[in-house]
UniProtKB/TrEMBL annotation:
Residues 52-137 form the Methyltransferase type domain. Pfam families: Methyltransf_11. Coiled coil: none annotated. PANTHER family: METHYLTRANSFERASE (PTHR43460), METHYLTRANSFERASE TYPE 11 DOMAIN-CONTAINING PROTEIN (PTHR43460:SF1). GO terms for biological process: methylation. Keywords: Methyltransferase, Transferase. This is Methyltransferase family protein. SUPFAM superfamilies: S-adenosyl-L-methionine-dependent methyltransferases (SSF53335). GO terms for molecular function: S-adenosylmethionine-dependent methyltransferase activity. It comes from the Bacteria.
Length: 247
């Protein structure tokens, strides 16, 4: 397909939920070595009451073999919440609407397991509040300067100072939690055509805020020509795993 066909296709496809299957054959991303879903599944199998904060479309939680007897999930964006209810309802998970801001709408000492994959922000004092004594928080977060190569291409050089793993440790400890695991990874990504770039930026909306094909058509065309001439556009995502316990 030519440039116009690629961007038109990617601009029309739905970006609801948190599933990236549309990118198969168009983009690749190395996965973190620790296997977040596997780790979450191991902890879910031992939990009694659990919650997945910011579940997106519920795809990751739905893939866990055994859930806690009582499992809830939260999601703020209505299209994702509807998708999460479709994915998680058959497994007995209640999906709760939240405001994507503290406080969490749960009582103190409710959950022996809280999980969250790629939260925009971890509300550490609220996580500590809703965990039972001895309870666990497990999260995979986006790390510093993730996919900075792509963002800088569209927005120019950015400061990239936030989302440091050690800052997360400090905030968790300040909330009274004990950090028992903290690991980081830098992961290669390849965008094989310009459609993959358009889809990614439409879906991961905080990368290039207010991104539209019309607004960035010139940069998209230049990148398309670069990919056509030189091969995939390479960027690096960063992730960190953090696990903390409430004494």
């Amino acid at each position: 397909m030519d440039f116009e066909e690629l961007i038109a296709e990617a601009d029309a496809v739905s970006v609801d939920g948190w599933n990236f299957d549309w990118l198969a054959g168009r983009a690749t991303e190395e996965r973190p070595p620790w296997g977040y879903q596997r780790l979450m599944g191991e902890r879910m199998a031992r939990a009694e009451v659990a919650v997945d904060l910011k579940t997106g479309g519920g795809e990751v939680l739905a893939g866990v073999p055994r859930l806690a007897p009582t499992t809830l999930a939260t999601e703020s964006w209505p299209p994702n919440r509807a998708r999460a209810r479709e994915n998680l309802g058959p497994r007995g998970v209640t999906v709760v609407a939240d405001r994507d801001a503290p406080p969490l709408s749960f009582r103190d000492n409710t959950f022996d397991l809280v999980v969250s994959r790629h939260p925009v922000r971890a509300w550490w004092s609220e996580i500590a509040r809703v965990l039972t004594p001895g309870g666990t928080y497990l999260s995979q977060e986006v790390g510093p300067a993730s996919v900075s190569e792509l963002v800088d291409y569209f927005l120019g050089p950015q400061p990239w100072t936030a989302r440091q793993p050690e800052e997360a440790r400090a905030m968790a400890e300040a909330a009274g939690l004990e950090v028992v695991d903290l690991r980081s990874a830098r992961l290669r990504m390849e965008f094989l055509d310009i459609g993959a770039v358009v889809y990614f930026l439409r879906k991961v909306v905080w990368m290039v805020p207010a991104f539209t094909v019309a607004e960035y058509r010139d940069r998209l065309r230049a990148l398309h020509e670069e990919i056509t001439a030189e091969g995939p556009f390479v960027a690096f995502s960063t992730r960190f795993l953090i696990e903390a316990r409430k004494p």
